[in-house]
Specification:
The protein is α+β, with helices and mostly antiparallel strands. The protein contains 2 helices and 5 strands. The chain has helices at residues 29-120, 174-177, and strands spanning 123-128, 135-139, 146-151, 163-169, 185-188. The strands form 2 sheets. Strands 2-1-5 form a 3-stranded antiparallel beta sheet, with helices on one face. A hairpin with a 6-residue loop joins strand 1 and strand 2. The longest helix has 92 residues, at 29-120. It is rod-shaped and about 140 Å long. The relative contact order is 0.07.
Length: 189
């Protein structure tokens, strides 16, 4: 197996074998056995050292991997936090943009209503019934057929609650024909 630590591990050369003289020399089994025993002892010594070096290298690699994992987790946590902040900022900007668009639409509608009223001679009054959404009523003549008065915010109530409201609707008048009812609040004219 290949490993980048292999080149840094000690690789001592094997001990020199005693030459066995084949032709006319002395070659005994005892000499051969002694040489094999010495080689085996050398291999045992160096394999122990190599194993220790491999174990040490493995420990260093594990420590480095732990350090890298800690750094990755730290960076991931920072990135997640920043992503949440960016999302929150984006959400705030979207909410602000929606409010600006709503205000622009309301202003545009008011301008269009005023332009239509000016061209056609119609008076547009916005009312809020006791329960319900704003209702626009278009009066074709100046005789609208209702009277207004201040409502709410009397002597005991806060002044902020005082509003202009329909006090009386004339029988067979334009307001009655258009469905305007007493106590409706006038929002705009």
């Amino acid at each position: 197996p290949s490993c980048r630590f292999r080149s840094s591990l000690p690789q001592p050369p094997p001990p020199p074998l005693r030459p066995l003289v084949a032709m006319g020399g002395s070659c005994s089994c005892e000499n051969t056995k002694k040489a094999v025993d010495e080689l085996a002892e050398h291999i045992e010594d160096t394999s122990g050292e190599a194993a220790e070096a491999w174990i040490e290298a493995a420990h260093k690699a594990a420590h480095a991997a732990e350090h890298v994992a800690e750094k990755v987790a730290e960076v991931a946590k920072k990135v997640a936090h920043e992503a949440v902040e960016i999302a929150d900022d984006a959400k705030e900007h979207v909410v602000e943009a929606v409010e600006v668009v709503k205000e622009s639409v309301e202003a545009t509608c008011a301008t269009m209503d005023a332009a239509v009223a000016a061209v056609t001679g119609v008076m547009i009054v916005e009312f809020v019934p006791d329960k319900g959404a704003v209702r626009k009523v278009s009066f074709k003549t100046n005789n609208v057929g209702f009277e207004i008065a201040m409502s709410g915010g009397g002597c005991c109530g806060p002044a902020a609650q005082a509003r202009v409201a329909v006090k009386k609707v004339d029988k067979k008048g334009q307001a009655e024909a258009l469905g305007v009812l007493q106590s409706w609040k006038v929002v705009s004219i």
